[in-house]
Amino acid sequence: MKKVSLLGSTGSIGTQTLDVIREHPQAFSLVAMSCGANIELARKQIQEFKPKLVSVAKEEDAKSLQREFGKEVELHYGESGLKEVARMNESDVVVTAITGSVGLLPTLAAIEAGKPVAIANKETLVTAGHLVMAAAKKHNVPLIPVDSEHSAIFQALNGEPAKAIDRLILTASGGSFRDQSRDELQHVTVEQALSHPNWSMGAKITIDSATMMNKGLEVIEANWLFNIDYDHIDVVIHKESIIHSMVEFVDRSVIAQLGTPDMRVPIQYALTYPNRLERLEGDRLNLAEIGKLHFKDLDFDRYRCMKFAYEAGRSGGTVPTVLNAANEVAVAQFLKGEITFLQIEDVIEQALHSHAMQSNPSLDEILAVDQAVRARVMNN
Question: Which of 49, 51, 191, 380 registers the highest number of CB atoms within 10 A of its CB?
């Protein structure tokens, strides 16, 4: 029985992680979880999975749940509560399904507590990849990718020496507007942007997919996870989302990982690695039924956020921190109707151009830059 701590239980990855636990009660149990504002769903999750420790965003919600569940559950809240979930003594693995750079500090707390991390929070590595990877190495903690693209690469690399790798090829669906020109994006609505053709994801990630910033963040994440230079990380548009990513080796052999677009597959693999567990539910891949797979080169003029991400990754230092912080605020502003879809790119570009890069920043410096960028973007 593997005991799981779950950061972000009410989000898309969090609820699908609970689907995996529910499907295999003999293999997994939930011992700790955190959530944000969706207290009604959290209440149902506590009732079903009976975790011993729970953290919520607000103190008043923690007090309310504590009165309801009494001594059955230990309640925490806020940033300190996230850290409590991350380093919970009984847990065997921490799933970081929380969205945004808020995942950085609890991820570091889990690593420092010696907990293996199933990482679905790409913003943590984008914001402070050098610190996270150094901490993982220091504490000998594995970081097991949950994102379908990085899970695919992780699986393709099993047993392969680093010197044999020539290129990583990340696939991208193209998001909600993959068949539309930039001119057609001038007046797209939030509802249209949230209509992803393949995947079931949270609002922020779905918007990131539409701008392709999600893939840009994944490029930076791949650089940290697999120690591959940006010149050897490519992205190709693959609208069916059947090939989740590929690795090209020096002998020109290419290994790809395929499957239906179902996040429960990489989540389960991250929880069972290095073993595999039978999936009792979910569709099998039927290539004959699919018939054809389509691929297209990435156009950096069409998807400007991809250009920003590559440039930020190559610059390093605090530049990826700025990229992520500006994007998080811009996406939130778009979801509230405060800016247009294409203005997301303008907000990010302006933040990058106005930043003076700091190299090899400390954690305090990264947190300061993150907050300063958010404040500046929100006040513009």
Answer: 51
